Structure formats: C-alpha cells, structure tokens
Amino acid sequence: MTATTLQPRTRAVRAEGGLAGTGTLLKMWLRRDRVMMPSWIYVLTALVASTVYSFKNGYDSPASLESFARGIDGNPSMRALYGPVLNDHTAAGVSAWRVGTTGAALTAVMCVLLVVRHTRAEEETGRLELVGAAAVGRRAPLAAALATAVTAAATAASLAAIVMLLFGLPAAGSVAFGLSWFGAGLVFAGVAAVTAQLAETSRLANGLAFAVLAAAYLVRGVADAGSAHWVSWLSPIGWAQRVRPHAGEHWAVLLLPLLAFAVLVAAAYLLAGRRDLGAGIIAPSPGPARAAASLRGPLALAWRLQRGSLLGWSVAFLVYGLAIGGVADGVGDLVNGSDAVLDDIRKMGGQQDLADAFLATAMGLMALFTSAYAVQSVLRMRAEESGGRLEPVLAAAVGRTRWAVAGLAVTVAGTVALLGASGLAVGLVHGARSHDLGGQLPRQLGAALVQLPAVWVVAAVTALIFGLLPRAASAGWGVLAACLLLGQVGPLLKLPQAVMDVSPFTHTPKLPGGGFDVLPVAALTAVAVAVAAVALLGFRRRDIG
C-alpha cells in the first residue's frame, strides 16, 4: 500500500479525534462476547426472577414479611451481607433488598471483566497493536470496550426491571432497581478503564479493579452493620442501595455514578496518553537474573502465578464464613411466620433442623463460589498458552503433562484451602455463639470439605474443554452458571429430579445435619479424575496455541 493511499485514512483518524473504528471494534467485541455476555445477563435475570417469585409466594401475609424485615434489621451480620431492609416491607421492597447489593456487585464484576478483556488483555497478547496498525484511532479500543460494558450493564438492568414488572411490582421501583444496577456497572467499568492503564497485565488490572470493588462492598457492609450509616455514601455499592427502589425512590442519587463514570473515563484517557502501547503506568519490577531454587519447576511456577489470586479469594471466603456463622443461630427469627420459606430452606438444605438446613445451603453456595475460583484457575493455563508464554516453558525440560498436572494440582490445593477456610470460619463463630466450639468446629469443617468432589468435577470439565477445544475454554463459566441455576433455582421451581441430577452438587451429602454416604463422594471424585485424565490426554495430543 502506498503512502498516497495511507494519507486519507490518517486524516480520517485525526478528524475523528482518535475514535475512528470504534463502531467496528464494538461489533467485533460484541461478537466475541456472544457467549460470555448472555451467560452473565441470564444469571442476573434468573437471580431477580427467582427472588421475586420466592418472596411473592413464600409469605402469606404482610405481617409475616414485616416480621422477616424486622429480623433482618436486627441482625448485624445480615445487614453487613445485604444491607438493611428499608421502609417498604412488601414483597417488592424485600426483593429489592435481597438482590440489590448482590446484583450490583455482580454487574460490576461483569463490567470489569469486559473492559479489561478488550483493553489490557488485547494489548498483552499483541492483538491491539495489529488492530491499531489499521485505520483505528488510539482512543477507539477503550471507547469500544466501555461501550461493550455499558451495553451489557444496560441489558442486564433492563431485563431486571422488566422481570419485576412482569411479576406485578410497581413500575417506578422496578425502573429504579434496574438503574441502580446500571449505575454500579458504569462506575466499575470506569474503574477497570483506569486499572487497565495502570497495570501491564490483565491479571493485575483485574486484581486492582476487584480490590476496589471489594473495598466498596466492605465499606458498605461495615456502615450497614454499625451505626455510622453515612459511611455507605463513600461506596458505589452503597449508592445502589441509596437509590431505595420500592422504598421511596431517591432518583437524584443516580447522578453520582454518572459523575464518577465521567471522571474515571477522563482519567483513563489521560493516563492512556501518557504511556506506550503495551506498557502500563505502573512499571513491573525486574526479577533476579536467576530463579530461586523454589521456582525451578512447573509446580512452583503455577503456584507463583496463582498465589495472589488465591490470597484474595481466601480473604473473601473468611469474611463470608464469619458472616454466615454469625447469622445461623438467628435464622429461625428471620423467617418466622412463613411456612413456605421454611420449607424452601429445608428443601435446599435437605434437613429438618432449620439452622442445619441454612448452613447446608450456605455450604452449597460456598462450593459454587469455590468452583468459580477453580474455573478461573484452570483458565489461567489457557492464558499462559494464548499469551505465548507456554511454548518457551515446554521448549525446556518440561513435558506437557507435567506442566498441566502442576496447574491442576494448584487448582485442587486452592479449592481445599478456600473451603477449609470458610468451614473453619463458620465453625468458630457458630460454635462460639452456640457455646459448642469443640463440636461445631469439626462439624462445619467437614460440611465444607465434603463439597470438594463436586467442585473438582466442574474444574475437570473446564480442563477437558481446555484440553480438547482450547478456543472454547471460557465455556467453563457456562458449566458453572448451569450448576448455579440448577442448585439455587431448581428446588424453588420444583424441576424434575432428572434435570437436577445433571449438577454434581445435587449428589453431595447435605451436611451439617444429614447422613454421610461415601458412595456419591467417591463417585464424584472418580468422575473428576477420569475427566481430568481425558483432558490431559487431549492436551498432550493437540497443537499448542
């Protein structure tokens, strides 16, 4: 191509202020996210639908809902997890309370992943440099990434509002609820845009953004659990709560996320203009010329790559376990007056004792969260391959199978650590509150660890996809989403048992309180080992890259 033909394209790019090609990139990235984005949106929509359905059909009278709401407001642990139930103690208000902060946080996670995926990750792999060599402006990739995240957040928020309307909830509160989610998505899309400029790797960019999200959730939780409620104004997750959907909507609060988004995007573009393509504002520190003895092996390398992520997950699990342990003794007061909700908890927990049923349900949720870590950990191997860092490792005296086994070993050890940490936290708090520390500590630890085989099945299936169809490895998130929906929504919707049995979590013993059967635990473990073996075989025989 001659310089004469390049000049009009260059002038066009300059004329558009560096935004040339934004529309094309947006179309391309929406196509790339045709699986990931709908999966997220589906899960968020199903979360709203199942929650509203449960509260509308689970309480027979306004008095029972009033009793439930007062029980929540009197329990600091529940307020820390979900916030206080505001003035409206109807099914609409309680539904908005139950999934308001949780859904806002999940929407924020979705937006962070999308923005980093299409900015820093593209630079890290070198694809953005190739795209930028064409008639694409310097600002276009970030603009398209933000547009992708905004589109996803807007779709999830709109569907959440529509679901509430279909259930007959008031229109104003339903719209405010959707906008509260959208606002949280906007803020953290902006946060991710900034961290993508600061960090030189997508892993660090995601880590920084999630650290901000965790801090925002923690600030809101501390404010709601204590008496200094004004502190929640410092948290974007607190802003979503302050919109007060179905509780006398405060529309002006929605200006805060819009303002924060504008400031963060401006900061991201300012930082982008001060760095080179592929580099970050935070320069990585050079390592030693020779690796330490502790790093001379694929297992040590896998641990080094994943230790930061595991530490963050461990802190979150400890906090969650402490909160669940604090709530367990008072769960009867929370659902007093609703036989239907009591029945639902017992169905999901599989026990007649309410505290045990609640804890069994909580352990199931912890297992699903642990599976999210397991999927992320397995996909780290795919990131090493697609980033071109695997081939130099395999060119030395490291075999494919040995490298993959090391990665899976760290995944397995991480799942044990996470469930062990949460089980210990629940056992310590619940045991101290029930004055039975010696009995509850091993009981809750065992209830957590018995979930491991089901988690390993999800990890093994993800590894199988990676081993056979590496380009589709992210479908592991779809496997987890299916298990989540079956486990949490299936019992409430009374799905056929044959459908429920698809999820490995259906077959784990319902502990604490239930009987322990070694057969399903052994069967799930055997399935996980067999699937992992096939995954290793497939990885050994396919081409790298």
Order of secondary-structure elements: HHHHHHHHHHHHHHHHHHHHHHHHH
Fraction of helical residues: over 70%
Q: What's the tally of helices?
A: 25
- Overall outline: globular
Low-confidence stretches: 1-16
End-to-end C-alpha gap = 30 Å
Mean pLDDT: 83
Rg value: 24 Å
Beta-strand content estimate: under 5%
**Number of structurally distinct domains:** 2
* Structural class by helix and strand composition: mainly alpha
Reported for the largest beta sheet, the result is: none
Q: What is the β-strand count?
A: 0
Describe the structure.
The chain is mostly helical and 545 residues long. It has two domains: 17-283, no CATH class; 294-545, no CATH class. It has helices at residues 3-15, 22-32, 36-58, 62-73, 76-82, 91-118, 120-125, 127-132, 140-166, 171-198, 202-225, 236-242, 255-272, 298-327, 331-334, 339-349, 354-386, 390-395, 400-433, 437-449, 452-468, 476-488, 490-493, 497-500, 518-541. Helix 14 (298-327) packs antiparallel against helix 17 (354-386). The longest helix has 34 residues, at 400-433. It is globular.
What are the SSEs and their pairings?
Elements: H1 3-15, H2 22-32, H3 36-58, H4 62-73, H5 76-82, H6 91-118, H7 120-125, H8 127-132, H9 140-166, H10 171-198, H11 202-225, H12 236-242, H13 255-272, H14 298-327, H15 331-334, H16 339-349, H17 354-386, H18 390-395, H19 400-433, H20 437-449, H21 452-468, H22 476-488, H23 490-493, H24 497-500, H25 518-541
Organism: Actinomadura montaniterrae
Protein name: ABC transporter permease
Keywords: Membrane, Transmembrane, Transmembrane helix
